[in-house]
Every structure is written in C-alpha cells, then in structure tokens.
UniProtKB/TrEMBL annotation:
<dbReference type="InterPro" id="IPR015421">
    <property type="entry name" value="PyrdxlP-dep_Trfase_major"/>
</dbReference>
<feature type="modified residue" description="N6-(pyridoxal phosphate)lysine">
    <location>
        <position position="203"/>
    </location>
</feature>
<keyword id="KW-0663">Pyridoxal phosphate</keyword>
<protein>
    <submittedName>
        <fullName>Perosamine synthetase</fullName>
    </submittedName>
</protein>
<dbReference type="GO" id="GO:0000271">
    <property type="term" value="P:polysaccharide biosynthetic process"/>
</dbReference>
<dbReference type="GO" id="GO:0030170">
    <property type="term" value="F:pyridoxal phosphate binding"/>
</dbReference>
<dbReference type="InterPro" id="IPR000653">
    <property type="entry name" value="DegT/StrS_aminotransferase"/>
</dbReference>
<dbReference type="InterPro" id="IPR015422">
    <property type="entry name" value="PyrdxlP-dep_Trfase_small"/>
</dbReference>
<dbReference type="GO" id="GO:0008483">
    <property type="term" value="F:transaminase activity"/>
</dbReference>
<comment type="similarity">
    <text>Belongs to the DegT/DnrJ/EryC1 family.</text>
</comment>
<dbReference type="InterPro" id="IPR015424">
    <property type="entry name" value="PyrdxlP-dep_Trfase"/>
</dbReference>
<dbReference type="Pfam" id="PF01041">
    <property type="entry name" value="DegT_DnrJ_EryC1"/>
</dbReference>
<feature type="active site" description="Proton acceptor">
    <location>
        <position position="203"/>
    </location>
</feature>
Length: 400
C-alpha cells in the first residue's frame, strides 16, 4: 500500500470536477460589476421579475434601437412566444435553416406549428434566397419564417422574407448569436416583427440563462408581457406596487417564462461591458484571420459587406487539401489541450427533428457539406493573444 492510498481523501465535488482544457472552447465569466449586481438583488428582498427586469428591457431595447424589450427565460421561449403571438392557425408552416441550433425548431413545434427546413448556401452556411425559395415552393408555400444570423454574421432579413414570400410581420429573428450585429447600418433588433436574443452562458452577453424579445410593435410587446407569465394581465411586481390591485385576469394561453431580477441585474452590468467585449472579439477574429490565412485546406469564416458581424463564433472549414478531416483535427487538438466545437449538427441529422420537420425532396446537400467541414475554434473575449497564437500554430502543425 502506498502512502498515497493511505492518505487518500474521500471524493469531494472539487476532486471529481472535470478539469477544463488548458485552452477551453469558451469561458463563461461575469464581470465583477455583474457579480456585485447579483448580490445587491439577492439582498434586496425582491428575487423574481421586478424593477431590474424593467430596466434591463429598456436598456437592451435602447442598445438595438427598438421601441420595446420583453425579457423572458430563454431565446427558445422568446421564439415560441412570438410565434404564438402571431396567431397562426395550428399546423401552419414556418421556414427555418436546417443548419442551426434545434431551439428554434423546438419553439415552432411547441407553438403547434411545423418547421420547414431550408438548405444552406455552403459559402455562408445560411439559406440564401435560392435555398429559401426552393424550400418554400417544395412545401407548397410557408406562413412564417425564422431567420438566423449564424455565428453573428448578419443576413439580409428583407431578402429572406421576399424569397419565402412571407410578409415581414410574419418573420421572427433568432438573434441568439447576433446582439451587436447590424445589417445596412441598422442594428439587429428591429429588422423583422420581433428579434429574439439569448443570454445563455456562452453567448456574447452572458447571464447564464435568459432571453429577450425586441420589437417596434407595441401590441405584440403587450401580449408578450402577459404570455411570458401564464397569460396573466398583471405580474406580481405590478400587483404589489402602491395602488396595485390583487385582481388579475388571464386573457391568453401563456408559458411560465419570465426572467428574474437577479438575472436582469447581471444582464444590465454585462451590457455595460458589452461594447468592450465586442471590440475584443472583432480584434481576435482579425488576428485568427491573419494567423490562419495561407494555410491550405483551412477556409476562413466569410466576411460580408452587408453589415457588422457580432462575432459569436469563429468557425473555419476544414477541407481537402488539409491532410486530415475535421473529426481527426478535433481529436488532435483535444490531445493538445485545445477545446473546439461544431456549430451545428443540422436538424435532419437529429432523430426527433428529422421525424418532425418538413425536409426538401432533394435532401440538404449544402447543410451536409458544411456539417462535415465546420469547426468552431476557441473564441470569447477572454481568449488571450498568446492562446490564439498557440491554437493557430497547432493547426498549422497538423496541416503540414
Ligand atoms: C443558444 C441558441 C439558441 C437558444 O438560446 P436559449 O437562450 O438557450 O434558449 C437558439 N438559437 C441559436 C442559434 C442558439 O445558438
């Protein structure tokens, strides 16, 4: 028996917690101000939806130039609530990209609607007008659409709506990656009927969990204020304000999808740091471009002249003549302690969604091609130049 086993301590949470890779794919770090703000609310005696949420809604709406913001528990809930607010008939068809996170498809199905998957243009990994038109025609027309700005890369919402023959009031944006992006000088947040943001732990504005709808449509915003909380006509905060009444009605079918004041306080503080974080992300993207350009078989993320990129992800494509494929490169980088990820496994490759979405008759060759090649490199505002250079050097070494 070695002295080590004699002195072995019982397993504690910290001794079994997985150790992060030396260079993780992404870090979720709150600013000191955000942690202090959470504490302030925790000590205030009001924990659920209240004044912090109202202030966060106002500040985030102002940031994107929208009339209204409605905070909710997640971007997925935001998309579901907006779709429900459109009052589409049950089973109405909603077009969306095949190559995105499954949250939007879940929202469509939860709202009693049917996702129609559009293939993507391999150059952008998003559906272009051609893919949108052909998916809409093959489905016999669609009633609404979810537009995603993949990785933070701005997409032309008006052109997408035109191609789908859907009016803009039936378009909702999945902007989970796109806070800080703009299209033709207009911030993402006012381009369609309603824009849905995510504050999930790894998103550009991280709270841990949370979401927000921004819109210029007061009627929709008022419906959302109620449907995020059981369809009640008045939430707890407003019931308990001076002069508030205990009476309320329930006028809509609603979800339990409100945001708490603790989360909102964190979000407000993170919003103050947001411009600085976005600047850092743009600088890191430019540095990756410079370090990786000229390496055969690594295609850099496309740059668009359409507007400002929010740089949520830095995703390259790994293709011949790179000597190893994407999966092998993930393995080799992991062995070097470098974390990566794949955005996304397309929906037709997920069993539940393959069974519940309308797929184009010709399959999804664009999404298949992107899926086989795409690789998201370590990326967030806390990545150091040295770490980025080490990741780039490792990819060069594997590519020779
Ligand atoms: C993260 C993400 C979502 C879901 O956001 P939640 O706030 O976790 O619901 C939706 N769409 C995309 C593209 C995402 O990356």
């Amino acid at each position: 028996m070695t002295s080590e086993t004699l002195t072995a301590r019982p397993l504690t949470r910290s001794s079994v917690a997985p150790r992060p890779l030396p260079i993780p794919f992404a870090r979720a770090v709150l600013t000191p101000e955000a942690r202090a703000a959470a504490n302030r609310v925790l000590e205030s005696g009001w924990l659920t939806t209240g004044p912090e949420v109202a202030d966060f809604e106002e500040e985030l709406a102002a940031q994107v130039g929208a009339r209204r913001g409605v905070a909710v528990s997640s971007c997925t809930a935001a998309i579901e609530l907006v779709l429900r607010g459109m009052d589409l008939p049950a089973g109405a068809k909603v077009l969306m990209s095949a190559d995105t996170f499954c949250g939007a498809a879940a929202a469509i199905l939860h709202a009693g609607l049917v996702p129609v998957l559009a293939d993507v243009d391999p150059a952008t990994a998003m559906p272009g007008p051609r893919e949108i038109r052909s998916a809409a025609v093959a489905a016999g027309g669609v009633d609404a659409m979810v537009v995603v700005h993949l990785g933070g890369s701005p997409t032309d919402v008006v052109a997408a709506a035109d191609a789908a023959q859907v009016p803009l009031r039936r378009v909702v944006e999945d902007a989970a990656h796109a806070l800080g992006a703009s299209v033709a000088g207009r911030p993402v947040g006012t381009l369609s009927r309603a824009t849905c943001f995510s504050f999930y732990a790894t998103k550009n504005l991280a709270i841990g969990e949370g979401g927000m709808v921004t819109t210029d449509d007061d009627d929709l915003a008022d419906v959302l204020l109620s449907t995020r909380l059981h369809g009640m006509s008045r939430d707890a905060w407003r019931r308990y304000l001076p002069g508030g009444s205990w009476r309320y009605d329930v006028r809509h079918e609603g979800l339990k999808a409100n945001l708490t004041d603790v989360q909102a306080a964190v979000g407000r503080a993170q919003l103050v740091a947001f411009p600085r974080h976005q600047q850092r992300r743009a600088a890191l993207a430019a540095r990756y471009d410079a370090r990786l350009s000229g390496l055969d078989g690594i295609r850099l993320p496309p740059r668009t002249a359409l507007g400002t990129h929010a740089w949520h992800l830095y995703a390259v494509r790994v293709r011949p003549p790179f000597p190893i494929n994407r999966d092998e490169l993930i393995e080799r980088l992991a062995r070097r302690g470098i974390g990566t990820s794949v955005h996304f496994i397309p929906l037709h490759c997920l069993e539940w969604y393959a069974a519940h979405c309308v797929l184009p008759p010709g399959g999804l060759p664009g999404a298949d091609e992107v899926y086989a090649e795409t690789l998201s490199l370590p990326f967030d505002q806390h990545l150091t130049d040295d770490e980025l250079d080490a990741v780039s050097a490792a990819i060069w070494q594997e590519g020779m």
